[in-house]
């Protein structure tokens, strides 16, 4: 079944290119990137050195700068652009896509202006399409270097999700189905904020005990807000939540953790962003997430401290003083 489907994937960065290369092993796949150089390199050399310096891509993967060519004949569309350009990209493909084609989102962020999840944004711009997310502890460069990984493909429709599972999986990329797309999407987006916190702590010399406490309390914050926003707790305990939290908070490859490391070393957020050429979604997500928590009266001490460093110019050292000064009551309570 999967071999008969044509796939159009939007986004020629680290993750869009990685997923396109995996899917191209299973089905004809066309990747859209806005850069002519990236497209020419993928088609001629089967590489995308700017984002995946050492990776060799599946030779059958085709790339184009034309949206119509990527999505016009596609049976499945995959969104791999950063969250803040997802709405514009969805609007731009509207004239070209066929009705009822399933759309899978890879992005792990919230829209800055609305606080919406990416499948909400895509659904508003492209109504009438089955929507899903592919997410989990999936560092692009690791996967392209041939190391095994696992992900969840989450959709409300359990027939479509099983048909699409075969598109994404390979021998080393295990794809589990999941019927809680809201929870899977929230887990992937929320963990980025905690990776910034972990990076700050590591830069300040946190020990293994401290980091373990921070990760565990991060998981508790993810559960508190995630469940209030409609996630199922078991989804947040799985690959899309706990799994991705562990990967992103501990890997030197994580861009969000790197942002935290740099903030912890004393740089301002402006200096950190000026030195980065890749997206770290947690920087934009922390504002909407903090607002959602405040609006619901949900206490998230770690998110509060990351917000203060990113948006209010507070030093990372004061974030840790702030966390330590929060009274430790019952483990079931915030703090
Ligand atoms: N990297 C990873 O390991 C993983 C990332 N993700 C998620 O995937 C999403 C994409 O991240 P990733 O691929 O890593 O990002 P990268 O920073 O590696 O690449 C960003 C891509 O977006 C493109 N882009 C930027 N602005 C625009 C725009 N205005 N219109 C169209 N395209 C644009 C860039 O194009 P150009 O090169 O022309 O600037 C580039 O192709 C994020 O939400 C991320 O959280 C999820 C799992 C793993
Ligand atoms: O989502 C990711 C791993 O699952 C990638 O994390 P970063 O965006 O922090 O690199």
UniProtKB/TrEMBL annotation:
Active site residues according to the UniProt entry: 191
Catalysed reaction, written as an equation: sn-glycerol 3-phosphate + NADP(+) = dihydroxyacetone phosphate + NADPH + H(+); sn-glycerol 3-phosphate + NAD(+) = dihydroxyacetone phosphate + NADH + H(+)
The keyword NADP appears for this protein: yes
GO cellular component, one term: cytosol
EC number(s) stated in the UniProt entry for this protein: 1.1.1.94
Gene Ontology biological-process annotations: carbohydrate metabolic process; glycerol-3-phosphate biosynthetic process; glycerol-3-phosphate catabolic process; glycerophospholipid metabolic process; phospholipid biosynthetic process
Binding site for NAD(+): 11-16, 140, 255
Residue stretches making up the Glycerol-3-phosphate dehydrogenase NAD-dependent N-terminal domain: 6-157
Domain Glycerol-3-phosphate dehydrogenase NAD-dependent C-terminal stretches: 180-319
Residues annotated for substrate binding in this entry: 108, 255-256
Record-listed sn-glycerol 3-phosphate binding positions: 108, 136, 191, 244, 254-256
The family this protein is said to belong to: Belongs to the NAD-dependent glycerol-3-phosphate dehydrogenase family.
PANTHER family (UniProt xref): GLYCEROL-3-PHOSPHATE DEHYDROGENASE, GLYCEROL-3-PHOSPHATE DEHYDROGENASE [NAD(+)] 2, CHLOROPLASTIC
Protein name: Glycerol-3-phosphate dehydrogenase [NAD(P)+]
Chain's gene name: gpsA
